[in-house]
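Subject: mismatched residue count in predicted assembly?

I count 634 residues in my input, but I want to confirm that the predicted structure covers every chain. Input:
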Amino acid sequence: MIGRAVEPIIELEDVSRIYDLGKVQVPALVDVNMHVAKGEFMAIIGPSGSGKSTMMNILGCLDRPTSGRYVLDGQPVADLDDDGLAFVRSRSIGFVFQSYNLLPRTSALENVAAPLMYQGVPRRERLMRAQAALERLGLGDRLSHVPSELSGGQQQRVGIARALVTEPALILADEPTGNLDSHSGAEVLSIFKDLHSLGRTIVLITHDIEVATAADRGVHIRDGQLQEAVLG
Amino acid sequence: MSLSDLLHLALGRLGTGKLRTALTALGVIIGVASVVALVSVAQGATKGISDRLQSLGTNLVTVNPGFTRGTGATRGSFGSATTLTIDDASAISGLAGVQYVAPELTTNKLVIAGSLNETARIVGTSPAYLSVFAYDMWTGSFINQASLDHNMRVAVIGATTADNLSLTDTSIGSTIYIAGLPFELVGILQSKGGTGTADDQVIVPLTTARELFVGTSSVSAIGLSATSEDQITTVSGEITALLEQRHGIASGATDDFSIVTQAQLLGTVSSVSDVLTFLLAGIASISLLVGGIGIMNIMLVSVRERTREIGIRKAIGARGRDILSQFLVEALALSLAGGVIGIGIGVLASFAIGVYAGWGFVFSPITVVVALGFSLIVGIVFGVWPASQAARLDPVVALRYE
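Triage response: the counts match. Full output below for your records.
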């Protein structure tokens, strides 16, 4: 058991994910146990093929474990149906992706407002909240720019604004600096540190131990199993 | 998601690919426009024919000599059978329910007025002709009882004939020559319009025509008007009985005359036009169907292209039904926009055709409603499958899609 917390955001108990490819069964996660406390900034470090992406999909409620228990922010989510998972993603999780994954041909403002649309927030309010989030990330003058008009660093900051706008319990960042130059990458990591100091719970998934040092706790993932890491 | 969110998304999407949107909608535009225009053409043509039939006379019943046959194309045989006589006409005028009776003796002769001439249809008839066939005088007067009684050489001409021979209201009282014989022009008929031959004829007293041109006591046809519309069937029956008795034909045997009523003609026209309308609407529906398949095609391509977008939307909280409604509303917006534009074009086209063909503008609100309904159905039917494909995408797979 890694990390015991009084007020956990993430509790994984004996979580396994086995891909059924017909003739072969491929275990991607094997009996994983992990706790992440509220306000923690945790890094999951692993090379490609280690089960890192599967971990991200499970934690992000994009996929279900084959077995085991997953409690996110007090709610068991392992057995939810598709709509239930969508609801949890909408309310409790903010994603930051390696390739930003902004909606193309859609302004920064609309991109950041989009998660609020799926929460049913009225248009006027969600645009106001989206604008506030973008301004907090220093993009107040880029509201009407579409992704193709923004630099990689700016696009990733739009992505972070989109993850923050719903005030989620968990921010899940998947290689957020992977597509950025070192300067923009450092900038993005310092944003995560700031968010952490403001009390946000962040899980950062990366293959890069350097990047992982931004977090205050780390675990290695290898062959679908976790192992405490020593950072810095 | 609210409806306004969905509309916002759909219109934004359609607005970013204007050429593609326009080409996709074009299929529906053409389909709906052809449904509206072709149905309107069918209805306009029907109205044109019905109007002409009604302008032939009010409560008109026509008795033709010879064996039962169709109308129209067999007009050439008029006068070739000689089974109807002036006495038959007189007998018919004694029947209850008959208002006016106008026997007709028809022949074709050369008509000369000044330096102009034409071969015209010469109709020998009685003064009742004017009422039976619902003509109005444009100038002068119609042939009267005195001219009939005294075999007078007077003539009334149709509007087209007057045009052809350059005769106007100042020509009343002048002399025209029919088959070389001088006649006094006493009147010119008001035009009935249309493209038929109703305005191209020369009317003379029946007695004069028989004496000078034909020389028999048979007539080419007997036109009569019933006192009211509901009398037409009764009158037809009475005439049949009367003529069978006069001609010595057993009831049930083949008659040597036939009776055509306006109601029969109108009935034939409307059954033909129903077939025509269904046929044209059917052909037009095929293009609407093709337009719908065009929408489905482009929506399927769109779902494929936007797989990653769908993945992103699901990651940030969209449920399957949010994605489904987004794509469905897009398809509906496409087909509805196509439908509205198509109706506009269809209405303009039917207006242009109606004016050109001369039956005026026939606007049928039902057609418009049906066409709009069909374009909506096309949007739903052909949008729902691509939309459900989109809704069912696995977010993990969709997010990784390049």
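Residues 68-79 of chain B have pLDDT under 50 and may be disordered. Marking this ticket as 'not a bug'.
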